[in-house]
Fold:
Amino acid sequence: MTDKHIVCHSGGHSSALVAIEVARKFGAENVVLLNHDMHFSVEHADIKRFKQEIADYLGLPLTIASRRNATQDQFDVCVEAGAFKVGNGSELCTSRLKTEPFYEWLAANAPPTESVVYYGFDNTPKERERMQRRTGVLGSMGYRTDYPLVTWGDRSILATEEVGIARPSTYETFTHGNCIGCLKAGWQHWYIVYCTRMDIWLKGKWAEEEIGYAIHYDNGQPVYLEDMEPRFASMKAAGVPATEHIPQQRFWAQARKIVPIHDIQQRMDLPCDCHQI
Ligand code: SF4
Structure:
């Protein structure tokens, strides 16, 4: 039996490169492009454009593994559950919107003995940690995993622009393709949300009020979005750029010249684990 090569096609640039590499190596007919289509309000239209263009380039359909109630975003699922985190402290939205639909899809469509699951992790210490975790979790379910950007020596493509597909415009502002208003992201991400997506900022405030907890805990203390509003307003008025491309240390050093920000954690913005599924 020919293996089924399942690429976790998140809509990010790295996983698109993996999709192309895997299809070139094993034949597109043996590849599944698995995606979680996130609610249009939090997944940028240009990410939707990008993942479809990659699928079209490979001549493959996008295989969607989404939560049955596709009208829900990360805030809705948390409010429905009355919590932002699950028991082990990880984000509930990851579990509801990505991990659970992924495992359901695998169970229904991909026998472990005939399937290999591919991720777009890079060769950085953090990503190597995540690779180990994914290898362990999926391995315990009987699945093989592979990480072509790290484990395959020769690469046939380094940028999707080589095949005429521009990466999502969101990379001009963000460093990852996470949901906008990511519940795992730090304050620098949320400053961008405040400056550019007041609708999502307000939805975050609504969710905090409904649940009675803050999305952010800094130094063990809750810091509500509302607490940050006056500071973000001053930063915005002073022209602090809304981007993830300024390194955190420099970004907050600039912010501190304008407002007292000593109590917030400079949490590293990471790609959502679920982002790569
Ligand atoms: S990208 Fe962020 S907000 Fe979206 S599901 Fe993952 S943790 Fe939640």
User: Anything to note?
Assistant: The chain has ten helices and seven strands. The first strand starts at residue 4 and ends at 8.
